Amino acid sequence: MSLVRLTRICTARSRGIHSTRCRSFNTSQLEKPYYITTPIFYPNAVPHIGHLYSLVIADIFARFQRLRGTERPVHFLAGMDEHGLKIQKAAQAKDMQPSAFCDELSGQFSLLAESAGVSNTCFMRTTSREHHETVAEVWRRLDAKGLIYKGDYSGWYSITDECFYTNSQVAQTPSQGASPSTTVSTETGSVVEWQNEQNYMFRLSSFQKPLLTHYGSPANGGIIHPPQHHTHIVQILQSGPLTDLSISRPRSRLEWGVQVPGDPEQTVYVWFDALLVYLTGRGFPWSANGKKEGWPVDLQVIGKDILRSSR
After folding, report:
1. pTM of this structure
2. According to the model, what pLDDT value does residue 14 have?
C-alpha cells in the first residue's frame, strides 16, 4: 500500500453529487477541507479483504484529522471504477447489461464500507453523469492545449490489467504439455495479446522533465510513502524517454465507457477516465470564477501496483 501526499492549499466549498453518497460542508468561513481518497475499486467480482484493508487505512487518517480538533472539515472519497473491457466481458459472461452488473456489485462495495463503519463522506461511481461531464471537460481542455492527437498504436494488451505493455515488459512462458506457450506481463503475470489500433494519444513525453523536477526535488522527498516507491518513480523517469500514452480504444472493441467528445467511434481509455474521479468528487468542472472547490487531494491511499499509472 502506498500513500501519496499532495500539499498545495486552496479555498474550497463542497456540494452534493448525484449517484453518490456525499456529505456537504459549509466552508465559507473555513480553510480548504482535508481531502483524502482511497483507490476506486474495480467491480468485476465481489469485494475481498484487500479492499477493506485500503478503506480502513484511509479511515484511520480521516478520523485522525477529525480528532485534531480543528474546524477544518474532512472530505473522504471512496468509490468505483466501473468502465472498461474487463467489466464489459464479465457482464457478458453473466448475460447482464454492464450497467446492471455494476449496480449489483457496486452495492456490495458500498455495503462493505458501511458495515465496517468506514467514515467516507462520498461514494463516487465513474458511471455517474457528473463523472462523464468531468471526463469530457478534461478531454476538451487537453485537446485545446494540443496535448491530444490521433495516431496508430501497437502493443501488448492485457484485458485483466486494462493496459498496454511494451516489448520490454512482457515475456514468453514455456509450453507445458498440451498448453501452448503464452506471452505474459512481467509485472503482473497476466496474459497479453498483440493489438494494432488507431487511438487518441496523450503527449506524456512532454512532461518528463517537469515530472522529474517535481518528484526529484528534495522538498518533495516524502510525497510518496513508503520511500522505496518514491525512489522507484524517480528511477522510471530517469531510465529513458517517456512515450506518449494511448488514451482511447476503438468503440468497436470497447463500448462500455465514456465516448470521446466529438468522436462516436472512440471510447475514453479506462485509466484516463478513472483517475479523474478524484476531480469529480470535488465538483469539477468548477464555476466560472475559477474557484477550486477543495482541490487538491491532501492524502491518497493507493495500491503499489497502480502507483505508476496514478502518478
Report:
1. 0.82
2. 29
